[in-house]
């Protein structure tokens, strides 16, 4: 196997990001993982408001630590003319600008693609918003939960009653938009190698999440009934979900086809006759009779421990899993065995950080510190050629 070299795919690429919260920071952290220099522009004294979400990581915010390693923090008050001049100089040397400011804010600062492309034809601009440019929702505020609601996610998640609808436990709409922005930027960089010009990447949270909702959308095609909210179970495949075991634990299991159903009946339930029962001999019938079948499965598991059920499932090659809490994930034996946790420095000490999921044999991902607010401001300004007097003036005017 080839040993990782010191060269990463985005070495030499400079990204400037006017970012806050999750979608844009998650996107640019992926770019930093691949070697890009990411300069995070933050408001002086305040910074990305995600810095204040909580204090769970040695006093730092969990969201911020997750999405901001390997970046440089530059404070600029973009309401100040001198700060705009600094941003202008930065963009003249940058490859990519990412922004997820409030709708219309970037355009008001002269940062539309049309304006920037005339001045910096190789610059790639990525705009991330809640609903996209144009349309009746363009100016509407968009937070992750609201997009989960607008995009139909809440209609298929949670329990069967309206009062039991549930949001995803992580920022799924932000993550979706961040990943599409990331891949869009990579595509734009490849395109620039062919055309010599930068291009405009636009990503909306709504469209990103709706793309992920295409299974339930097609399931309801032409007015067909929607899948019911089924908690942690699958709405349209059964048995597929959590089941209690006799020792008070829960096993998660899933069947995908009729061959597995027959093995499940014979090897796990020890009731081979159920395989041909007319109530259960096809997935659609198992779904229709799920409550009856669930009772039979629970009865079969009632005298068994989690370990015993898991042993039978593994013997039958039926997919299964533990229901881990967060501590279980921190201690997950597979992540430990594969050495997926690395140490990353922060202003509050060293913390574990998960390696990027896409592992390459050609390079090691960048895993540099999470920046303190404004930590790199003077270093970046000096790198732009600004004199000590000019930097002092920026301080005096509150521009940095």
Structure write-up:
The protein is α/β, with parallel strands linked by helices. The protein folds into 2 domains: 255 residues, Crotonobetainyl-coa:carnitine coa-transferase, domain 1 (Rossmann fold, 3-Layer(aba) Sandwich), CATH 3.40.50.10540; 84 residues, formyl-coa transferase, domain 3 (2-Layer Sandwich), CATH 3.30.1540.10. It has 17 helices and 11 strands. The protein has a 6-stranded parallel beta sheet, sandwiched between helices. A 3-stranded antiparallel beta sheet has the order 7-8-9, covered by helices on one side. Helix 1 links the parallel strand 1 and strand 2. Helix 1 crosses helix 7. It is elongated, with a radius of gyration of 26 Å. One of its GO terms (molecular function) is CoA-transferase activity. Keywords: Transferase. Pfam families: CoA_transf_3. This is CaiB/BaiF CoA transferase family protein.
